[in-house]
């Protein structure tokens, strides 16, 4: 199933995103909306979202809510919303699979000419999604909403600020700072993103690694309207670790580097121990030299070997991620203009 999907995603669809626009039919904009225990705010969110999109009647809309195993009655509210609005679809997860997986499921089911991913706690303001659409109409294929300011706790602000910058330094792809998962993907980019099937998912990194014409729109991040964050420390740390380990082998390279340093220090230690034994035999405890030489040598060698093994583990890791080898935007042939 995943394989056929990957194959489909690989087939280049020339200029499909302009198809609807060219034919005069209204382009379809899909919203992917992950929901986890948002019972208090979800109705208001949908009202604000539909109010914002109503000001742009030139598009058709589709709202794909993903209920990520909520235990607080969010599903009931979503069913209600779906009953009153035929553009709404609700995917109901059998349990909580996490934010990144919820987004993935929504992306798999969104069929729009452009797909917008946003949080459902009104921290990503619906009106900003219209700015993303404008940038898309202007030719951008991926538009990320970047936080100019955010109204979270000082702790969250400080950790997020530092994390994004550390990640940027060690990651192999250029992951934009202060950008979450609030973004618009053109149909082609969304199709390609569906081809990334790795389990530990850091979607903003995958998007950054895809290429395409990427643009940023600045916005001020609001406070949560209701409830509290669904990213407790534990989940946040896991996401942070996923970000580093999916897009960088810096930790593995660190082992090799430490291995080299240990081996060099061990060699110096060995020279010192042997010199002491040769030139000052009177103060050298019997058996100490042999013990030191063996211990230092083995220690250094082990560290270095770990680094070597690590570099192979890194390769295996890259292989099992099974990311697309390349991404084709378009194939130009001679009978097209
Ligand atoms: N969310 C989800 N599954 C989870 C955690 C969060 O679908 O396991 C949703 C949540 O309902 C919200 C979005 O992901 O729409 C972002 O979560 P939250 O606002 O708690 O994160 P924060 O803004 O505090 O980083
Ligand atoms: Mg939030």
From TrEMBL:
<dbReference type="InterPro" id="IPR029044">
    <property type="entry name" value="Nucleotide-diphossugar_trans"/>
</dbReference>
<keyword id="KW-0328">Glycosyltransferase</keyword>
<dbReference type="GO" id="GO:0016757">
    <property type="term" value="F:glycosyltransferase activity"/>
</dbReference>
<feature type="transmembrane region" description="Helical">
    <location>
        <begin position="258"/>
        <end position="280"/>
    </location>
</feature>
<keyword id="KW-0808">Transferase</keyword>
<keyword id="KW-1133">Transmembrane helix</keyword>
<feature type="transmembrane region" description="Helical">
    <location>
        <begin position="292"/>
        <end position="313"/>
    </location>
</feature>
<dbReference type="InterPro" id="IPR001173">
    <property type="entry name" value="Glyco_trans_2-like"/>
</dbReference>
<dbReference type="InterPro" id="IPR050256">
    <property type="entry name" value="Glycosyltransferase_2"/>
</dbReference>
<dbReference type="Pfam" id="PF00535">
    <property type="entry name" value="Glycos_transf_2"/>
</dbReference>
<keyword id="KW-0472">Membrane</keyword>
<feature type="domain" description="Glycosyltransferase 2-like">
    <location>
        <begin position="30"/>
        <end position="193"/>
    </location>
</feature>
<keyword id="KW-0812">Transmembrane</keyword>
<comment type="similarity">
    <text>Belongs to the glycosyltransferase 2 family.</text>
</comment>
<protein>
    <submittedName>
        <fullName>Dolichol-phosphate mannosyltransferase</fullName>
    </submittedName>
</protein>
<dbReference type="GO" id="GO:0005886">
    <property type="term" value="C:plasma membrane"/>
</dbReference>
């Amino acid at each position: 199933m995943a394989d056929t999907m990957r194959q489909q995603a690989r087939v280049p669809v020339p200029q499909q995103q302009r198809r609807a626009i060219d034919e005069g039919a209204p382009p379809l904009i899909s919203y992917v909306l992950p929901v986890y225990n948002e019972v208090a705010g979800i109705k208001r969110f949908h009202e604000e979202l539909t109010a914002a999109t109503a000001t742009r009647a030139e598009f058709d809309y589709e709202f794909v809510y993903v209920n990520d195993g909520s235990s607080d009655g969010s599903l009931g509210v979503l069913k209600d919303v779906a009953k009153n609005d035929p553009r709404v679809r609700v995917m109901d997860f059998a349990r909580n699979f996490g934010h990144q997986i919820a987004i993935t499921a929504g992306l798999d089911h969104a069929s729009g000419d452009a797909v917008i991913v946003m949080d459902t706690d009104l921290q990503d303001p619906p009106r900003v999604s219209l700015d993303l659409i404008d940038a898309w109409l202007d030719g951008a294929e991926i538009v990320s909403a970047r936080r100019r300011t955010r109204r979270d706790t000082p702790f969250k602000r400080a950790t997020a600020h530092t994390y994004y910058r550390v990640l940027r330094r060690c990651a192999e792809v250029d992951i934009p700072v202060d950008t979450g998962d609030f973004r618009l993907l053109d149909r082609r980019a969304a199709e390609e993103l569906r081809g990334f099937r790795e389990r530990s998912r850091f979607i903003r990194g995958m998007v950054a690694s895809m290429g395409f014409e990427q643009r940023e729109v600045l916005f001020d991040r609001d406070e949560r309207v209701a409830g509290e964050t669904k990213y407790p420390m534990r989940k946040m740390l896991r996401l942070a670790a996923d970000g580093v380990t999916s897009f960088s082998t810096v930790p593995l390279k660190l082992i090799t580097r430490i291995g080299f340093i240990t081996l060099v220090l061990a060699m110096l230690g060995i020279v010192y121990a042997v010199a002491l034994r040769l030139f000052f035999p009177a103060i050298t405890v019997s058996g100490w030299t042999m013990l030191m030489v063996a211990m230092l040598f083995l220690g250094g060698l082990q560290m270095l070997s770990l680094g070597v093994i690590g570099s192979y583990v890194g390769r295996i890791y890259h292989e099992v991620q099974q990311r697309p080898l390349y991404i084709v935007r378009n194939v130009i042939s001679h009978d097209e203009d």
